[in-house]
Amino acid sequence: MASTYSDLKIELIGTGEQTGTWGATTNTNFSVAFGEAITGSADVAFSSADQTITLTNTNAAQTARNLRLNLTGTSGGARQLTLGSGCQIEKLYLINNGLADAVTVLNASYSGVAVSTITFVTTTATATTSSNHGLTSGQTIVMTGCTPAAYNGTFIVTVTGLTTFTYTMLSNPGANASPVGSYTTPGTSVVVPAGKSMFVYNTGANVVDAVTHLSSLTLGTALPVASGGSGASTLTGVLKGNGTSAFTAATAGTDYVAPGTATTFTALQTFAGTTSNADLKTSNILETATVSATAAPASPPINYDITTQSVLYYTTAATGNFTVNFRGSSGTTLNDLMQNNESISVTFLVTNGSTAYYNSSVTIDGNSVTPKWQGGTAPTSGNINSTDSYTYVIIKTGSAAFTVLAAQTRFA
To answer: What are the φ and ψ backbone dihedral angles of 92, each rounded to 5 degrees?
Structure first.
């Protein structure tokens, strides 16, 4: 009885065979075949092209039998390592990708299990197999030998059960398949990134990740951000990152709001509250005041920048009746700064000497506005040797539409 070979190409000596030489065959089985499968390491050289490894019926040294495959040479772009003829067996591999590009590890096409029936609903084909097909949704198959021909072609399957799957045909076949034909598939694959090592498992049909869970892992160096780590060996407090560099400790008051640490907000903050809670509770609020040794002039209009201050104080005696123009800033209109149904309150303090000048005109973004003055009458003069306080409540009622409530008060 002649020798046969196992999946790993271990030579199985037939009964009564190899009289006087069986010892050498057995030694080769152990020293070569078993050694390669259990602890062996072999190089797979790339030269800017895909590579295929195979297993044949010999217990002599074979690359595809080794546990560890070292991918060497030049990739010249993303590559494929195909487990070719004889490799459609259950086997674990450690792929050490020493190339400059990623390598996809996959099986050569293999024949699927026998198909019992293929039925249809319009262009959706439902195949039933005689045993567990082992496919996964999203896998590609090549169906051949079916009648009508619409069932044949390259398709992506959706698994609906252990022995059923569906695929979408290009046209309605009009009848169930008879004969049903057969299919082949390269199975699923695993991409091994450049410069990385991965355990992969060949089920005989699919190449899959061999490790899906670790209870713990100790690294010699920090895991880089690009690999899903932090890039740092020690971290305390609140962390921040930019997506590429190592994580660093965030700074309270700069990167995040922390009780007890001063924080400067440069964007609009909205405190909404609820129907049963107030928006904000505080003991006091400090507002920015601009104090300037400037005289209120008759012209040009005084630009009051809302984003700069809440109080503007001119300490030099006014030289004429003046116009106040309210705006967001030199580059932002108040109309753009405020939304409809929002209001803001500001104060303008004007110093008067022996001649009493007053705010004779109000504009917003350069457009004239007639305020509603406290008491119902606009002022016609200021107050001599005094500081006149003008307060303005500005309410935006529509696009470029404002209501201004104004008041003048003497302080001396």
So the answer is: -95, 135
> Token digits for 315?
């300490």
| CA pair distance 236, 219, nearest whole angstrom | 19
**What DSSP element (H or E) covers 395?**
strand 386-398
DSSP label of 173: -
CB 304 within 8 A of CB 330: no
Taking only the tens place, the pLDDT of each residue in 75-101 is 999 999 999 999 989 999 999 999 999
How far is the C-alpha of 380 from the C-alpha of 133, rounded, in Å? Answer: 95
Query: Residue 280: what pLDDT?
Result: 87
CA angle 50, 52, 55 (to 5 degrees): 170
Give the DSSP H/E element, type plus range, for residue 350.
strand 343-352
pLDDT at 227: 78
Q: What pLDDT does residue 267 have? A: 87
Q: How many CA atoms lie within 13 A of 141 on its CB side?
A: 30
Residue 188 has pLDDT above 90, yes or no: no
Closest residue by Cα to residue 251 from 260, 238, 264: 238
User: What pLDDT, on the 0 to 100 scale, is given for residue 134?
Assistant: 80
CA distance 241 to 256: 13
Element (H, E) at 336: helix 334-337
Rounded distance between C-alpha atoms, residue 387 and residue 35, angstroms: 99
What is the rounded CA–CA span in Å between residue 360 and residue 374?
A: 15
Average pLDDT over the chain reads 92
Per-residue pLDDT reduced to its tens digit, 205-219:
788 888 877 788 788
User: What pLDDT was estimated at residue 168?
Assistant: 97
Q: How far does CA 301 lie from the centroid of its chain?
A: 51
Rounded distance, CA 168 to CA 154, Å?
A: 10
The alpha carbon torsion through 49, 50, 54, 60 (nearest 10 deg) reads 40
Task: Give the angle subtended at the CA of 191 by the CAs of 137 and 215, to the nearest 5°.
Answer: 85
Query: Which of 354, 356, 344, 346 has the alpha carbon at shortest distance from 388?
Result: 356
At 74 the pLDDT is 97
pLDDT surpassing 80 at residue 383: yes
Hey, what amino acid is at 97? N
Q: Where are the beta strands (DSSP E) in 145-222?
A: 153-156, 158-161, 164-168, 182-185, 190-192, 197-203, 207-209
Going by DSSP bridges, is the β-strand pair 41-47/68-74 parallel, antiparallel, or unpaired?
parallel
Residue that the structure tokens 């490790």 belong to: 211
The answer, yes or no, to whether residue 264 has pLDDT greater than 90, is: no
